[in-house]
Amino acid sequence: MYISEVSGHRSATIAIEKAIRAMQPDSEILNLNAFNYTNPISEKIINRIYMGVIKRAPKIWHYLYDNPKIVKRMQKLKNRVHKFNTPKLKVLFDQFRPDAIICSQAFPCGMVADYKKHFNSDLKLIAVLTDYIPHSYWVYDTVDYYIVPSDDVKSQLSKKGVPTHKILSLGIPFDHRFNEPLDRLKLFQKYRLNPDLPTVLIMGGGQGLGPIKTIVKSLERSTYKIQEIVVAGTNKRLYKSMRKKIKKYKNKISLFAFTDSINELMDICDVIISKPGGVTTAEVLAKRIPMIIVKPIPGQEASNAAYLTERGAAIRTEKPEHIHTLVEKLLQDKVKINQLRESAGKISKPNASLDIAKLVLNL
């Protein structure tokens, strides 16, 4: 169970589903947008509000995110929502009869946790955290296991009252094909790019968020000859705007909307400029790509950025208009590039999806 169709939460559940099917092909799996199932109208409204806050007033999100006062005030509302959703969950579970439920987001995790308590159910509930911060909305007595990205997150979650034996540091799940070696030369040919030029991949997650146009404009000022891959995701306005301007730029730019070939695009890039979503971060670490993070969203993204930069696996900047200088310095500094790659390799958990699948099947 996840929320939001275009999100790392959904990508994580799909990755786990693929891993389970690879190990036990006859498994019956229902992969469900829990928010849409229980509250279809509210989902659209809340998604719009969330996106508006993130884009226009990120400081508000920073205030709301894992704020103990807000968590306490939200408790009564959360209880009412769970009570309202419980009959819908009962219909779903009576029909599908699951042996285990895996949640990649706190909202469905809370619903199922309260369902278990209400019906005294022995359903196995696994919470999969996809960011390097465990906010308080995850904490429930009836969760059987918590899968976390790192030992640091394990320690933080333990301080929130979760017994340590329930917390497993297996990593953030992502599609296992990101671990498969590819023929880079063939990929350069496929995407009509020059294998002799440095390639910069620019992304803003599945929804194409962040100052992507500003980054592209900045790279135009670079004295270094480079080529760029820009992924606009589901951001139609960004895609149309970039498509109109693409011929005016001096750098060669390959423009993509939402694509299922991110693993291939990552394989041919020398540097990635991206927002630090949890699943994207896990993929980049597995590929050991030097990463530049630009203006992360307060809350989970800022925490992800802090985790990566503190461990030397990424570089962070708050000034997208000057990113060309940062890229130039990085491309000229082979020692720094190797340090970033080595640091990424140390904290990467490439087998997260398979390890989670093994845990679930063993239950």
Describe this structure in words.
The protein is an alpha/beta fold. The chain folds into two domains: 166 residues, Rossmann fold (3-Layer(aba) Sandwich), CATH 3.40.50; 171 residues, Glycogen Phosphorylase B (Rossmann fold). It is built from 16 helices and ten strands. The strands form two sheets. It has a six-stranded parallel beta sheet, with helices on both faces. The protein has a four-stranded parallel beta sheet with strand order 1-2-3-4, covered by helices on one side. Helix 3 crosses helix 4 and helix 12 crosses helix 15. The radius of gyration is 21 Å and the shape is globular.
Number of separate helices? 16
Q: What is the share of helical residues? A: 40-55%
Question: What class would the helix/strand composition place it in?
Answer: alpha/beta
Number of domain units:
2
Give the H and E element order: HHHHHEHEEHEHEHEHEHEHEHEHHH
The CATH first-level class of the largest domain comes to Alpha Beta
Which residues form runs of ≥5 with pLDDT under 50? Answer: none
What is the fold-level CATH name, i.e. the topology of the largest domain? Rossmann fold
CATH superfamily of the largest domain: Glycogen Phosphorylase B
Lateral strand order in the biggest sheet: 7-6-5-8-9-10
In whole angstroms, the N-to-C terminal distance is: 18 Å
> Strand portion, in percent?
5-15%
Number of strands: 10
Q: What value does the Rg take, in angstroms?
A: 21 Å
> Strand count, sense and closure of the main sheet?
6 strands, parallel
